[in-house]
Amino acid sequence: METKYDVGKKVIILSNQVKRSLDRAAEDSGITGVQARVLGILAEAQKNNRDVFQKDIEEKLQIRRSSVTGVLQLMEKKGLISRESVSYDARLKKIMITKETKKLEDHLHENIYIFEQNLIKGVSNKDLDTFLSVINILSRNMNV
Amino acid sequence: METKYDVGKKVIILSNQVKRSLDRAAEDSGITGVQARVLGILAEAQKNNRDVFQKDIEEKLQIRRSSVTGVLQLMEKKGLISRESVSYDARLKKIMITKETKKLEDHLHENIYIFEQNLIKGVSNKDLDTFLSVINILSRNMNV
DNA sequence: CCGGAATTGTTAGTTACCTAACATATAATA
DNA sequence: TATTATATGTTAGGTAACTAACAATTCCGG
Fold first, then answer.
1. 0.85 exceeded by the pTM?
2. Which has the closest alpha carbon to A15: B144, B87, B142?
3. Spatial separation of the C-alpha atoms in residues B90 and A140, rounded to whole Å
4. pLDDT digits 0-9 by tens, A98-141
């Protein structure tokens, strides 16, 4: 009954470290790591002319609805985003970046780029590919 | 300025999923995932006749001192552990498992074993080794 | 068209994590 | 020895996650 690897525990440990580092990377834009990730999703969607609803954040971040509500409420209070209803479905709340936030983005994305580069320093492309493909499998295993 | 892989973000996403699954695994012992991990550390130390102090939890879980304090306070209140000072250093608090907790352990460890096995289902040993070695590198990168 | 099922979001209450500031105790050094 | 630095733990206040229960809307089958 020996657990050979403790993979799950190690993923959690790494994630705690990564979250702290991401928080630091977002810090001088005056926001948190999660907030930066939400802004990333919004920026990406804007490029492709797509609307973003809370459900999308839920899926992309793999957190619960109620957690999304909490994060977005804080972001709205800080003026980072605005939310408005759409005509064709009264349940949905469309999320939009404010003008002030747009000004943050370049510097923020740069810092996050640096964060990601620093994270994977010293790992070969081949190993990184394996790493990401394993992440996908584990992720799928958790969703069933 | 394209981030090629978004490895950090993906690690966080996976970790959120893993934490939920671990919480469910620990649930029918009446405890949370973190609490189960703390008990694991204590059980392991006991096998090797080693004392465990809060600093050790901090290092093994890679969370801040104040977070350790919080987790252990809750565990103490629930009667899962006790804490006592040692004669040779007044700063240290030794952490011990209570008798009631010992009764939980077999079933708990079994459920966590199942959780870990389910997590890595479908991943080859070779890829898992690569995965873990990459985790080690990323972890080190975050500590500098 | 109507009633139950599914979808989307919120609220309330809890746990786990964080930083900053603090309190003590021990170790190191001048 | 006295002072400073390091180590360990706590408190206070905040953010991010969770579950459970709820509310409202839309979808779908009879």
1. yes
2. B142
3. 48
4. 999 999 999 999 999 999 999 999 999 999 999 999 999 999 99
Is the shortest CB-to-strand distance from A34 to strand D under 7 Å?
yes
Contacts (Cβ under 8 Å, ≥6 apart) of B69: B54
Element (H, E) at B105: helix B99-119
Question: Which nucleotides of chain C have an atom under 7 angstroms from any protein CB?
Answer: 7-13, 15-21, 24-27
A130 near B CB under 8 A: yes
A30 contact partners, CB below 8 Å, separation of at least 6: A104
Judge whether A44 is closer than 8 Å to chain B, CB to CB.
Answer: no
Q: What is the pLDDT of residue B144?
A: 72
C-alpha torsion sign, points B65, A119, A116, A58: negative
- Containing A60, the helix (H) or strand (E) segment is helix A54-61
H or E stretch at A41 = helix A33-47
Element (H, E) at B85: strand B81-86
Q: In this predicted model, what pLDDT tens digit does every residue of B15-74 receive, in sequence order?
A: 999 999 999 999 999 999 999 999 999 999 999 999 999 999 999 999 999 999 999 999
Closest CB from A6, A122, A132 relative to B10: A132
d(CA A42, C1' C3) / Å: 38
- Residue B106 and residue A8: Cα distance in Å, rounded? 19
Q: Is B58 exposed, middle or buried (0-12, 13-18, 19+ CB in 10 A)?
A: middle
What are the structure tokens assigned to A89, written together? 């479905």
Phi, psi of A123 (to 5 degrees): -105, 130
Kindly state the average pLDDT of the residues B4-19.
Answer: 94
- Does A87 contact B at CB distance below 8 Å? no
